[in-house]
């Protein structure tokens, strides 16, 4: 089903961690399952990631109470190590993510095609919440290492 609109949504965060660590925690399934949720009542119990052009990814997203869940899936269009990831979601929407090293920190800029079910504001808030969880997770690991 095609749920694309002409609208693009953008989010960003500065992660207080070096680029190589940010990339690792963003792309490895064992890490993805630790941060890939928008709120504490959700989780991502399973992830697969074949990080290459033409490779597929899957993250299982579920409410912790078991009331709802879905697979977040897509195919990579472009992967440039430590720089850029672009992919197409199962519903045809496009996502682009840029990783920029800045004086020991890493800026992540993400943009995606909006879908038609939820408002732009809800989509931006949801995706930003996941990115904020990634920031919290990554900075926690880097602080303890």
Description:
The protein has 145 residues and is an alpha+beta fold. The protein is built from 3 helices and 7 strands. It has a 7-stranded antiparallel β-sheet with strand order 1-7-6-5-4-3-2. The longest helix is centred in the C-terminal third of the chain and has 25 residues, at 120-144. The N and C termini lie far apart (44 Å). The mean pLDDT is 94.
SS-based structural class? alpha+beta
Give the uncertain stretches in residue-range form.
none
Q: What is the residue-mean pLDDT, rounded to a whole number?
A: 94
**What characterizes the major β-sheet?**
7 strands, antiparallel
Kindly report the spatial arrangement of strands forming the biggest sheet: 1-7-6-5-4-3-2
Listing every helix as H and every strand as E from the N terminus to the C terminus, the arrangement reads: EHHEEEEEEH
What is the first-to-last residue Cα distance?
44 Å
Shape, please?
Answer: globular
Q: Rg from C-alpha positions? A: 15 Å
Total count of helical runs of at least 4 residues: 3
How much of the sequence lies in strands comes to over 45%
Name the helicity range. 25-40%
Count all strands and give the number.
7
């Amino acid at each position: 089903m095609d749920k694309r609109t002409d609208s693009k949504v953008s989010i960003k965060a500065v992660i207080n961690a070096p680029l190589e660590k940010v990339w690792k925690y963003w792309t490895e399934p064992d890490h993805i399952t630790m941060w890939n949720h928008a709120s504490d009542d959700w989780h991502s119990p399973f992830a697969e990631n074949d990080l290459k052009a033409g490779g597929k990814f899957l993250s299982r997203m579920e409410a912790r109470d078991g009331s709802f869940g879905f697979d977040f899936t897509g195919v990579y269009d472009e992967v440039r190590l430590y720089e850029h990831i672009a992919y197409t979601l199962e519903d045809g929407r496009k996502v682009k993510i840029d990783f920029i090293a800045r004086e020991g920190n890493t800026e992540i800029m993400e943009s995606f095609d909006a879908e038609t079910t939820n408002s732009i504001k809800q989509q931006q808030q949801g995706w930003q919440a996941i990115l904020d969880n990634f920031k919290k997770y990554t900075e926690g690991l880097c602080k303890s290492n």
